[in-house]
Amino acid sequence: MARKVPEINAGSMADISFLLLIFFLVTTTMDVDSGIVRRLPPPPDPTAETPDVKERNVFNVLVNKSDRLFVESRWGDISTLRAEAKEFLANPGNREDLPEKKLETIPFLGEYPVSKGIISLKNDRGTSYDMYIQVQNELTAAVNELRDELSRQKFGVKFSELSQEYTDAIQKAIPMSISEAEPEDIGGTK
């Protein structure tokens, strides 16, 4: 007669494995890169004509492969980019060399002069990711500061504290008009 082999009770092993799995799932952190928050425009209508944009309405920013800025046909600096973009978009003195303004009726704001200004950003293929992000941050900050200033002037609170309908009004008054061109080799290594 064959000897009986004793069995190991594996019922509690499944319970322990399940508890360990739950423990590791709860204690593990997942890193999620959020990236740059931008909403892309809808694809253009192929039958629509390309609008004419006057040169005075375009603020050109070029970044070369050496991470040097070329702003409005002259060498620029990242530390002054935000102020230059703000001045361009706001055009406080209604100068002829800065963008035109179009009077629009905006809910909660009434008649408001909306800038036709567009910021055109073009990078060299060799531009570093760090410089690209710095330029994006400065240009976005310029628009956000203008929105914050208008919000405080009209509603007495920061832009981030507004309700959705007031936020929409401020966004119509100060649109995020940043156009990014396809990267290419634009040189200027000095």
UniProtKB/TrEMBL annotation:
Its main location: membrane. Keywords: Cell membrane, Membrane, Protein transport, Transmembrane, Transmembrane helix, Transport. GO terms for biological process: protein transport. GO terms for cellular component: plasma membrane. It holds the Pfam family ExbD. One of its GO terms (molecular function) is transmembrane transporter activity. It is a single-pass membrane protein; Single-pass type II membrane protein. It is found in: Cell membrane. It comes from the Bacteria. Belongs to the ExbD/TolR family. This is Biopolymer transport protein ExbD. It comes from Lentimicrobium saccharophilum.
